[in-house]
């Protein structure tokens, strides 16, 4: 018997998430205010959960005497020449939102709290590209009048306000108040019908097939765990095709437009009829033909709408030809009627297109659009689920009626970027969560037997994704892992596989011994190009790191992007030496990437390498997630007498760094500092010492290249 899950109290969970989202927003606000001129894309607006820097442009009285406020982007934040379109967001008609004064970055904490309290709640009436209308909840609502305002989606508030009877069995499973329905006992039996599936892609490997059978057999939730390069999206495509064969209706979401379009492109090659929701301008050109906007003009049903449009055009022309005022008036009257009909037919056409579509695709926040409200789907599939905030995942889950959820992701790579992780606000929110939870568990929940087991909300942070939480709640039986990877040389794969993936990864035959010297263009056989794993150990103190805040802070820009960053010039020079050797051997610059966890180091690398090696790619580890290159150089930077490793200690970040390369990885780092950071880092250093081509650089040699003026 599997252990019964420890149920989560839903209102407390939602309250905890709200407190955390608010903390995230506060962190965003401080940053947006500090960096107003640079318009840094913020995590929350990326998540589509909030819009910053708004102004009220008009207030009017709407239906039933309710106050309707119109909000648009503050002209002060719109760059000259740019359109004042509100950045992409997930706030949709019908959403409950809060509008609040946006405190200045310089405002004191207490002032910020006060301002935040003054906000009003309302329901979104209309969303346009350049403005949004909100019907305020209370007629006497005190509309914030301050300079800038912000608005936040209240998905979690809706969840918090759910009544007990509104929890579907599916939602109960998501909170551990019920266990997932057990799988058929004969699932692994060859006689089970799922073993007789006709695969559309015959090249699927066994772990991919098993994951698909599992996702088809699961009743409420299925997690597909795809370590780097294991064909997670590839598997989802087959799953979608199999579900379509079973006549299921599917909503496919991802946290970003690119994650969704990636699936649209691959489904398109199978000629699957589908609808991609979202503004066509934001879609990949290859996905645009499937967008609702384009289909509304080109589908069969659109012909009816086009007929009316044509009639309207004819009428317009006849107005121009008529001088007689009476006739003109009559034509105007007819035009008005036609317009009404046009709008109705268009709405009908759009509704039918969406309703009749067996596969609908949208970003997580895009799925909250009015087109999908209340629609029935058999399955919601979320790709890159470990890159999405849980609150984002709830947008489709609360908006459509769904009976099953399939999440695909890898919780052992980096979660979505959270700014408030260590901020005071986040700590306060955690504390609030704890308090909140105690109150709930003690007072409201009469079902005493459940109460004692309520999972503490305090353990959930914004960084805890739905994928993580479900795994913790129900255990590994709700997931299947893909185990054949199609990216890395066997030796590159070995350490992450042993440490993080229970030694289960297998390198596909055609990648397992691929080297740079075997690239399909002329590459010399050198000590670098015949070696998949190189470790330049910079131990000994000759390659010391530098803390950027020493300098930048003094110039009065403390707290800016490089504030806590670290750099290491000597290691950067070593990177240059290694890249130079690869290029000299014939490896193309486009096939080489350098990644480092520190922005300050990225800046130095950029200065040193961009001019010398055009075409080479430089990136932060976090920014390189999801990417791959033939050769990757990882520059670890940290080298100090105190053996401090900072956020290098995060396993998931290192995992991303070490799993980007296909044929060659070169690690540059100080084993003395790094090896003392954690047990994991110690084992990594030991592994490299034993299995990598180990090299000790000589500082003078490293700078020879520099002197030669490369
Ligand atoms: N069964 C298979 N046989 C051969 N190649 C495969 C198979 N499955 C996946 N691949 C290849 O592996 C690569 C990675 O696949 P895909 O893009 O689906 O992976 P992913 O897991 O979504 O990516 P990431 O690891 O970046 O998250 C692709 O080039 C794909 O063609």
From TrEMBL:
GO cellular component, one term: cytoplasm
UniProt entry keywords in alphabetical sequence: ATP-binding, Cytoplasm, DNA-binding, Helicase, Hydrolase, Nucleotide-binding, Nucleus
Domain Helicase ATP-binding residues, every copy: 200-495
Cellular compartment(s): Cytoplasm; Nucleus
EC numbers on record: 3.6.4.12
Ranges for region Disordered: 545-564
The AAA+ ATPase domain, residue ranges: 218-487
EC class (word): hydrolase
Any one GO molecular function term: RNA binding
Reaction(s) the record says it catalyses: ATP + H2O = ADP + phosphate + H(+)
Gene3D superfamilies (UniProt xref): 2.40.30.270, P-loop containing nucleotide triphosphate hydrolases (3.40.50.300)
Family statement drawn from the similarity comment of this UniProt entry: Belongs to the DNA2/NAM7 helicase family.
Protein name: DNA helicase
Provenance organism: Clohesyomyces aquaticus
């Amino acid at each position: 018997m599997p252990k019964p899950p420890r149920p989560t109290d839903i209102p407390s969970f939602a309250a905890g998430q709200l407190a955390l989202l608010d903390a995230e927003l506060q962190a965003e606000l401080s940053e947006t205010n500090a960096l107003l001129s640079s318009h840094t894309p913020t995590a929350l607006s990326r998540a589509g959960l909030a819009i910053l820097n708004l102004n009220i442009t008009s207030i009017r009285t709407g239906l039933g005497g309710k106050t309707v406020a119109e909000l648009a982007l503050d002209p002060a934040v719109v760059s000259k020449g740019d359109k004042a379109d509100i950045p992409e967001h997930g706030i949709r008609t019908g959403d409950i939102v809060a509008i609040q004064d946006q405190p200045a970055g310089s405002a004191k904490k207490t002032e910020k709290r006060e301002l935040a309290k003054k906000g009003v709640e309302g329901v979104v009436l209309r969303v346009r590209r350049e403005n949004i209308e909100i019907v305020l909840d209370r007629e006497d609502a005190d509309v914030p009048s301050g300079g800038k305002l912000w608005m936040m989606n209240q998905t979690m508030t809706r969840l918090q306000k759910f009544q007990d009877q509104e929890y579907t069995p599916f939602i109960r499973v998501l909170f551990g108040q019920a266990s997932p329905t057990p799988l058929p006992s004969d699932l692994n039996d060859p006689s089970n019908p799922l073993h007789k599936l006709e695969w559309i892609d015959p090249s699927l490997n066994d772990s991919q097939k098993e994951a698909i059978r599992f996702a088809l057999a699961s009743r409420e939730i299925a997690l597909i765990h795809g370590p780097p390069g294991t064909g997670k999206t590839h598997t989802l495509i087959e799953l979608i095709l199999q579900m379509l064969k079973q006549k299921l209706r599917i909503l496919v979401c991802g946290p970003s437009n690119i994650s969704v379009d990636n699936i649209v492109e691959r489904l398109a090659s199978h000629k699957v009829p589908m609808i991609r929701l979202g503004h066509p301008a934001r879609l990949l050109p290859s996905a645009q033909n499937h967008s609702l906007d384009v289909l509304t003009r080109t589908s069969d049903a659109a012909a009816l709408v086009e007929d009316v449009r044509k009639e309207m055009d004819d009428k317009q022309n006849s107005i121009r030809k008529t001088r007689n005022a009476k006739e003109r008036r009559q034509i105007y009257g007819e035009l008005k009627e036609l317009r009404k009909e046009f709008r109705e037919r268009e709405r009908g056409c759009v509704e039918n297109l969406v309703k009749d579509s067996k596969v609908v695709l949208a970003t997580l926040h895009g799925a909250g659009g009015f087109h999908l409200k209340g629609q029935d789907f058999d399955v919601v599939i979320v790709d890159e689920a470990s890159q999405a905030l849980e609150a984002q995942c709830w947008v489709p889950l609360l908006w459509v009626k769904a009976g099953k959820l399939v999440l695909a992701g890898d919780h052992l790579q980096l979660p979505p970027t959270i700014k408030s992780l260590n901020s005071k606000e986040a700590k306060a929110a955690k504390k609030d969560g704890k308090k909140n939870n105690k109150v709930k568990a003690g007072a409201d929940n009469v079902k005493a037997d459940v109460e004692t087991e309520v999972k503490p909300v305090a353990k959930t942070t914004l960084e805890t994704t739905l994928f993580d939480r479900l795994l913790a709640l129900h255990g590994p039986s709700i997931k299947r892992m893909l185990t054949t990877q199609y990216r890395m040389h066997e030796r590159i794969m070995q350490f992450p596989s042993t440490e993080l993936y229970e030694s289960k990864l297998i390198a596909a035959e055609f990648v397992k011994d691929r080297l740079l010297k075997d690239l399909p263009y002329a590459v010399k056989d050198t000590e670098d190009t015949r070696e998949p794993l190189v470790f330049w150990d910079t131990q000994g103190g000759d390659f010391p790191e530098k803390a950027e805040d020493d300098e930048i802070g003094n110039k009065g820009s403390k707290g800016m992007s490089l504030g806590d960053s670290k750099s290491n010039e000597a290691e950067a020079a070593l990177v240059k030496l290694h890249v130079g050797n690869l290029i000299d051997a014939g490896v193309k610059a486009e096939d080489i990437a350098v990644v480092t966890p520190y922005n300050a180091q990225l800046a130095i690398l950029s200065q040193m390498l961009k001019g010398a090696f055009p075409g080479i790619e430089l990136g932060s580890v976090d920014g390189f997630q999801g990417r791959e290159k033939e050769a990757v150089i990882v520059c670890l930077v940290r080298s100090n007498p105190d053996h401090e490793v900072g956020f290098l200690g995060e396993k998931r970040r290192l995992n991303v760094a070490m799993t980007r390369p296909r044929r060659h990885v070169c690690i540059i780092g100080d084993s003395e500092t790094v090896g003392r950071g954690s047990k994991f880092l110690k084992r990594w250093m030991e592994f490299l010492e034993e299995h990598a081509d180990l090299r000790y650089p000589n500082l003078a040699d490293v700078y020879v290249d520099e002197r030669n003026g490369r």
